[in-house]
Design goal:
Distance between the termini: 63 Å
Structural class: alpha+beta
Largest sheet: 5 strands, antiparallel
Number of helices: 10
Shape: elongated
């Protein structure tokens, strides 16, 4: 038992306290980025943006299917591996900041970042891999060192109490037991676009971030008034309370270098209508 206690909590400390401060800085910064951004975008935390519509400790609906796309064991255990990946970022980020269960979360983080670098970013080149590789290196570093002098693990180790150490695992187990994947709903979205002036229209389409839409190809819109008003209707299955779109005229997408149009979805009726003027930015609102 003592060997397990030492493995989990015994930190390797530097000869000088200020050396431990320098060693802790990358751990704390990476932890903050992980829990506030990477993790919060796919794992339900108190600071997860409300628009993502995630319950506490829920995994975002699209993540298991993304994991399954890697094939093999990832397809077989897609929900479990997606949850562990999101958990290691969201909860592990907080643990990194606090220096709590540092070696345990360093291992989980290293596995997650290795998968992210190789399976997700490999084809996008080295620069796209760098964030995952950077966090991987920090995780490997602390897998050996533990929390150092500045962390909860160091305080637990000083107590030399195995029961306290094992009891500290309880919050982690409770979070894992609350595992869940975000529910989705099927929304019908009707969009209408008006051209600000008469234009020769060969094709008018809509693109977006939710299937059946994508950012590379048009969903063809129907003509209401020739060369003036066009409409389209589509269904999306999402856990979010919003979707993003842009219109495309003759293959040219509107609002270049500007934000996408943001459509707030009606959760009560599951039917949402949106009207806009082509290539004219406006307040995003539900209509």
């Amino acid at each position: 038992m003592k060997n397990l206690f030492d493995l989990l909590f015994r930190p390797i400390t530097m000869p000088r306290w200020w050396q431990d401060v320098f060693i802790s800085i990358p751990r704390i910064i990476c932890g903050y980025w992980l829990t506030s951004d990477f993790g919060a975008s796919k794992f339900g935390l108190p600071w997860t943006p409300s628009e993502i519509n995630l319950g506490l400790f829920e995994v975002v609906f699209w993540f298991p299917s993304d994991v399954a796309a890697y094939g093999g064991i990832f397809k077989t255990f897609s929900v479990f591996l997606a949850y562990m990946g999101a958990f290691s970022e969201g909860i592990g980020g907080m643990a990194f900041i606090l220096g709590f269960q540092t070696r345990l979360f360093s291992f989980l983080m290293a596995c997650t970042m290795l998968v992210a670098a190789i399976c997700q970013q490999w084809d996008n080149g080295l620069w796209s891999m760098m964030p995952a590789l950077g966090i991987l290196w920090v995780s490997m570093f602390h897998l050996i060192l533990g929390s150092g002098r500045f962390g909860i693990d160091h305080l637990i180790y000083q107590k030399q109490n195995f029961k306290i150490g094992m009891f500290s695992l309880l919050p982690i187990v409770l979070v894992l037991l609350m595992a869940g994947v975000q529910d989705t709903k099927s929304h019908t979205v009707t969009v209408q676009v008006t051209l600000p002036h008469k234009t020769s229209v060969k094709t008018m389409g809509v693109r977006g971030n939710s299937d059946p839409l994508n950012w590379n190809n048009d969903l063809v819109m129907k003509e209401v008034i020739k060369d003036s008003v066009y409409t389209a209707q589509f269904k999306i299955n999402t856990g979010f309370n919003f979707t993003k779109i842009k219109f495309a005229l003759n293959g040219e997408i509107e609002l270049r270098d500007q934000e996408n149009r943001y459509i707030l979805l009606d959760d009560k009726t599951l039917n949402t209508s949106y009207k806009a003027m082509y290539d004219v930015a406006q307040e995003n609102k539900k209509k």
